[in-house]
Amino acid sequence: MAYIDDPSTQRANLSFIRSSMKMPMLTRDREFELARRWREAGDTASLHELVRAYTRLAVATAARFRSYGLPMGDLVQEGNVGLMQAAARFEPDRDVRFSTYAAWWIRSAMQDYVLRNWSIVRTGTTAAQKSLFFNLRRLRARIEEASGRPLNDAGRRQIADTLKVDIADVETMDLRLTGTDQSLNVPLNGGEEDWQDFLPDREPSPEDVVMNRRDGATRSRWLVEALGELSPRERRIIDERRLREEGATLEELGRALGVSKERVRQLEHRALLKLRQSIRRRAERPADLFAEVG
Questions:
Q1: Cα–Cα distance between 154 and 160 in angstroms, integer?
Q2: How many Å apart are CA 267 and CA 290, to the nearest integer?
Q3: Distances from the Cα of 37 to the Cαs of 27, 31, 53, 131, 292, in angstroms?
């Protein structure tokens, strides 16, 4: 759906476009003279005259991008940004007309604006995807007109070959272009309920949050009490093997405790059995409150 400006914005845009079209065209010599004054002497008056004379290019280019549903005024201003970038980089000694040079910068600035604002989902992050985004509609219309039927797999393959992209990229972009962003606050069938009212809330309910916190506190208390029933050596093994993000190896603990790693494994197994028994004495359903450790 195309963006529609309010009446005051439309009048302002129309006034700007008319004033831009009234600016006199520059001759080749005058164009190079202004460019040299700006480049060599930093003459801002020359820059303004040069840029204002070619604002019509920004207006004409913006008209070609209106089909993407973005504000005309914003498109023109983005084109003016590209025009200023062209003026800052233009080298008159290369003997190229400024209009030819500026057209690329204007189009590039508008394309970047369209890609940033056409959808809330980032579109066209690579050069190939950017080319696909701006050429898919044109190529699709041409193929459908020639075949007299909707775009099929053969047509998508033809587009992929023309733009040198994967056919999967063509299929994905085709889906993106045919489905626009939809607000979750849009009323359904003119009623009072919005789309978002029918989205399932997969977050825990307040009751579940409270119960989980209470159960978690209970588990923590029981675990602390169970650990207190272990011997100092058993507790150290459980602490360094099971209660740390990067647990110690059996060999490391064996060296620290002065025993073999097999003895450490036996002590760890015995400590885990004690913990299980301690938890079972406290819980009606131990399986719900204690994770089995293999």
A1: 10
A2: 20
A3: 15, 10, 16, 36, 81
E strand or H helix at 117: helix 98-117
- The encoded tokens of residue 231 equal 């011997």
Provide the 3-class DSSP secondary structure of residue 265: helix
Helix (H, G, I), strand (E, B), or coil: what is residue 194? strand
Taking only the tens place, the pLDDT of each residue in 196-209 is 777 777 888 888 88
Of 293, 291, 290, 275, the closest CA to residue 225 belongs to 275
How many Cβ atoms are within 10 Å of 79's Cβ, its own excluded? 28
Rg over alpha carbons for the chain, rounded to the nearest Å, is 35
User: Which structure tokens are listed for 16?
Assistant: 């700007």
Report the share of the chain in percent with pLDDT over 70: 89
Cβ 280 vs Cβ 249: under 8 Å: no
What are the tens digits of pLDDT across the range 269-291?
Answer: 999 999 988 888 887 665 555 44
The pair of three-digit structure tokens given for residue 277, joined into one six-digit string: 């028994």
Is pTM beyond 0.70 here? no
Give the separation between CA 62 and CA 52, rounded to whole angstroms: 16
